[in-house]
Amino acid sequence: MERTDIKSGEVITANPSFRSKTERILEGDDVNEFYKNAVDKIKESIAKFQMEGSNWRFRGVVKLDINTMVYKPLYKPLKCKGGAYIDLTKKLKKTKAIINMKNDDDQCFKWCVTRALNPVEKTHKG
Known about the structure:
By secondary structure, the chain is mainly alpha-helical. It folds into two domains: 1-74; 77-126, no CATH class. Helices cover 30% and strands 5% of the residues. The protein has helices spanning 31-52, 90-95, 108-117, and strands at residues 2-4, 11-13. It starts with a strand and ends in a 9-residue tail after the last helix.
């Protein structure tokens, strides 16, 4: 950005940073839409900068960075395999909010939903 001081005629330059916000783009997302939104945000920031000071003109791009990274969610669902029963911690067992059935096939989810819809009273051996 540059402007000319009206009194002295001196050309003043500035290299402000204009940024768009960080976005998470997944495989099915429209990358062009994200790009358009980022460009619009940067243009908006430039216009705001020009309104804050008088006579600023856009001269050119000094530096452009596009940062990318692989998105790795913190949670990875466990693949349920026959015999892959994982016991709950004592703290989780006490909440009685999780159904954690033992089964010998790969239908963990089906068995948990079935049990939730058809609860069975637990009998205590005396």
